[in-house]
Amino acid sequence: MIFGRASPASPNFVHVISTCLLMSLTTVSAVFGDSGLTPAQKEILQRAAAEAPEASARAEKQLLERFGTTTFRLELAAEGVGKGSRLAELPPTELLAQLKKALSSLEYTSNFGLDEESRRLHPGNAALGPADIDAYRRVPTMWDLLNDSSPLAVNVSHKQWAIMDAAETGLYDLPNFHAPAQPSAIEAAQRPQYLAGNLRRQALGVQRYGSYAMIIRGDVVQQRALLIGADSGGWESGCNSSVHPVKEQNWFMKQLEKYVFACDPVRLTPFGVADHVLHTFLANSETFSYVGGSLARLVYQLLDPAAETRPLEVNMYMEGALLGDLVMDDLKAIIADFPGLFGTKQAEDLRSFCKRHGLPLAWGLGAARPWPQEAARTLSWLPLEDLEFWPVGAGRLLDIDAGWVATNSSRSPGSAEQNVWRRCWDEITQARASNDHRPQKEDFERWWAQLAEASPLVSPLRGDECISTDLCFGTHSNPDKQQRDCVCRLPPQAAKQDFVV
Fold first, then answer.
1. Are strands 390-391 and 472-478 parallel, antiparallel or unpaired?
2. CA 279 to CA 265: how far, in whole Å?
C-alpha cells in the first residue's frame, strides 16, 4: 500500500520543510535512539523473528504435500501453454528446494515519483522526488508529509488515511496515534515504509506506485521488515468492514470481491521475515488463487526463466512494512522508468542524486510505454485476461554515467558505448519535445535495443548466483570469463568517497 502519484506542487516546499526538519532532528533522535527504532517497533520485530521460523516450517510441510498432488502437477504443467511441464516433473523436494532458493534472493522494492508524461498531462500535480528525500535526509512516510502539511499529501483523501491507519494498527500492530489522523512528528516517523516483494521480478517494481523503484538491501529487509501475504490497503478495503474503500464499488463488484478475494490467509498468518517466509508466500497464493495468483502459477513464474505475467498479477505481491528510517545507505540501487524518464530533466537530476549518494542507477523498460498510456489500457488490467503479458525477470541497463561506477564491476564503458547512449538520449529528448509524434511503444523498444546491444543487460537475481544478497542485485554476462558476474553496490561509504569531491 503506497500512495505514489498525485498532489499539487509548491516550489517553496523543499526549502521550508528543510528548515523545519533541521529543528526537529534532535528531538526525534532522542526518542528513537541510536538504532532508529522505538521500543514498540523492536518488540514487534523480535516477536516476528521468534514466530516466523515455526510458521515457515509448517508451511514447508504444506507445500511439500501440495507439490505431490496430481491436481497441483497438472496445473503447473499447464502453465505457459505447457512450458511448466519441466517443473511439474521434478520431485516435490527438489521443487521446494528451488522455491526456497528463489525466495532467498527475492527483491523488495519501494516506488515513488512521477514520470515526464504524467507531469505534462497534469501540470498541477506532484509526487515525492529526490529533492524531497534530500530535504528530509531520508524517505519520508506519508504521515511525515501530513504532519508537515506538505502539498504532496493534500490530495490524499480521508478514506486513504483511514485505510492506512487501519492497516498499520490492525495488521502490523503499531501503536495508535494519540490524536486520530493527527500524528506528531515523532508518531509519524514511527510508521512504516511500504515494500513490495517482487514475486514476478518486474524491472520497475510495482510501477503504478511510481516511476522510480528503490531496491532495498537484503540485510535491511532481514532486520527491519515485517512481511504479510498481500497489499494491506487492498486487504483493508476488501476485508475490513469498518473502513470505506477509496472508490465506492457497485453491488456486482462487491459480490465479486467477496467471493474471489480470500481474507483469512493474511489475517491468520503470522508475520514473515526475509529468511523465514514460506508461510507468507503460501498466504499470498491462497489470497489471490481465484484471480490468477494460484500456487502453481506463482511457482512457475518464480522458477521458469521464460515465464510471463499478466499486468494485474504484478499487484499481487507480498507486502513488507519497513520500520525505522529508510535512507539511501539502505538501498542496493534505484531503477528508473526508461519510457517515462530517459532523456528528461528529471533523469538528469536523478543522475546527480545517485552520484551524490554513491547509488547505482539503472533503467528498466517495463511494458515499453509511459505509465499514463499503460494505465489507460483498462482491458489489459482485468484478471485472467489474455490480451497482454509482460516478461518475468527482464534485464535492466546500468546507467552510463551513474550506474557501473557505483558498483563492484571493473567495467569501464568505452567511447563507442558512450556515444550510443548520448545519441539515444538526444533522440529521445527531441522526440519528447515534438508535438507531431509523441514516442510510442515501438520507439522505446527500438532505443532500448540499441542500448542493450552496446551495454550488457543486468538480470535480476534468481537464487544463489551471488554470495550475498545484501548489496548484490543482478548478474551480467562476461565474455572474457565466459560466465555471469555479480553486480553489487559498493559499500556506501566507499562509494561516497569515490563520488564526493
1. unpaired
2. 9
Q: In angstroms, what CA-CA distances link 407 with 219, 222, 276, 412, 495?
A: 18, 22, 29, 11, 8
Alpha-carbon distance 205 to 335, whole Å? 8
Confirm if 270 and 279 have CB atoms less than 8 A apart: yes
CA distance 97 to 198: 19
Q: Contact at 8 Å (CB) between 239 and 270?
A: no
Residue 326 burial class via C-beta count within 10 angstroms: exposed 0-12, middle 13-18, buried 19 and up: buried
Torsion 343-140-267-221 (CA) sign: positive
Are 154 and 3 within 8 A, CB to CB?
A: no
Q: What is the 3-state secondary structure (H, E, C) of 407-461?
A: ECCCCCCCHHHHHHHHHHHHHHHHHHHCCCCCCCHHHHHHHHHHHHHHCCCEECC
pLDDT tens-digit readout, 412-452: 899 999 999 999 999 999 999 987 788 999 999 999 999 99
Find the length of the chain.
501
SS3 of residue 227 by DSSP: strand
User: pTM for the whole thing?
Assistant: 0.91
